[in-house]
Amino acid sequence: MNRDEKYMNMAIEMAKSTIGQTTPNPSVAAVVVRDNQVVGIGVHVKAGEPHAEVHALRMAGEKAKGAEIYVTLEPCSHFGKTPPCAKGIIDAGIKRVVIASVDPNPKVSGQGINTLRKAGIEVKIGLLKDQANNLNRAFFHYIQSNLPYVRLKTAISMDGKIATYTGESKWITGEQARNDSHSYRHQSDGILVGVNTVILDNPKLTTRQDGGGKQPVRIVLDTHLRTSPTAQLITDDTTPTWIFTGSQVSEVKLSPFFSFPHVEVIKLESEHIEIEHVLSILGERKITSLLVEGGATIADAFVRAGAVNEMIIYMAPKIIGGKEALTSVAGKGISNLKNVEDFEFTLAEKVGSDMKLIAVKKDAYSYK
């Protein structure tokens, strides 16, 4: 690892700690170096608060003059909720800027780099960009498509079953795998299930991990509004619950939910729930990342819609067998292999006694 890689790697590791809490902004970290010593560090902690570069430059103070700054994402050049970071870098007297990822946001892309270069600052682009891009895959997808980045999570046996033929599913994977999965709730703006999961499991769908964690919006697909007003995600007001229904649902069915301020029933114009329509609405509501934890039918709907960007699979060293036992993706499936989308495995690791696999779709959106 050379000198530049050392400091950029430091910034990337710092940015990892903020994944999920900066939405709808990206996770970004910065490191200021002078005379081969770190004199300032910073991360963007929350939307509306100072960006990483601001924190790092404040810490560096006068030592920023003639120093270098390593940033995981291109510094912004426009006024938003905070002043432009590119100007702050120029005003601080930084002589060299090393950037991992170019920001795909049309308000920023390339403009921050051009601003710095016009000021006579040396700019290096693309250092450890693959690692930096992975930090903000959801942000990059959302900013270019206005749709949430969809992660589909499942727990299966080695033969791909999520339950026995009698429907028993608790628990296929071990406690460590279940605890690990809660980190994805913390990273997501929304968590989605189907009404059958609500009826059968009565989940709270809250993040439960050491030290707390961000609580995603709970989203239920429920065409005929079969969710009970006594369900835990209705009576628990930890975080909002949004229920999507078809147009045929009557006011009589809707009325019991009016007494829960954190619950919103979103009645669609059509009788059936289309995944594409739901995602469009969620995008408009600033849900940048969505964790799908529904059962096999919900999984099938997302797969057939081509809406899955990432698969998270926890595989237990068990064989359940049985033609009637549920697989992780049920329903009709896809009829022709030519229409099956390609994914790429990006992670395989052991979690307790189970295996965790992550596969990412070969995305149509650019990661510069």
Strand order of the largest sheet: 10-9-8-7-11-6-12-14-13
> Structural class given helices, strands, pairing?
alpha/beta
Residues in helix, %: 25-40%
DSSP strand (E) fraction?
15-25%
C-alpha-based Rg, rounded: 23 Å
The number of distinct β-strands equals 14
Which H/E pattern describes the elements? HEEHEHEHEHHEHEHEHEHEHEHEEE
User: What is the mean predicted local confidence, pLDDT?
Assistant: 90
Which residue ranges are poorly predicted, with pLDDT under 50 across at least 5 consecutive positions? none
Using the alpha-carbon principal axes, give the shape. globular
State the end-to-end CA separation.
Answer: 22 Å
Number of helices: 12
Structure, briefly:
This protein is an alpha/beta fold and 368 residues long. The protein is 28% helix and 23% strand.
Question: Could you characterize what this model shows?
Answer:
The model has no long low-confidence stretch (mean pLDDT 90). The two termini are 22 Å apart. Helix 3 (85-92) packs parallel to helix 4 (111-118). It contains twelve helices and 14 strands. Strands 10-9-8-7-11-6-12-14-13 form a nine-stranded mixed beta sheet. A five-stranded mixed beta sheet has the order 2-1-3-4-5, sandwiched between helices. It is 28% helix and 23% strand. The protein has helices spanning 3-16, 52-60, 85-92, 111-118, 129-135, 137-145, 175-187, 195-201, 232-235, 251-254, 275-284, 296-304, and strands at 29-34, 37-43, 68-73, 96-101, 122-125, 149-156, 190-194, 217-221, 241-245, 263-267, 289-292, 310-315, 343-351, 354-361. The protein has 368 residues and is of the alpha/beta class. The radius of gyration is 23 Å and the shape is globular.
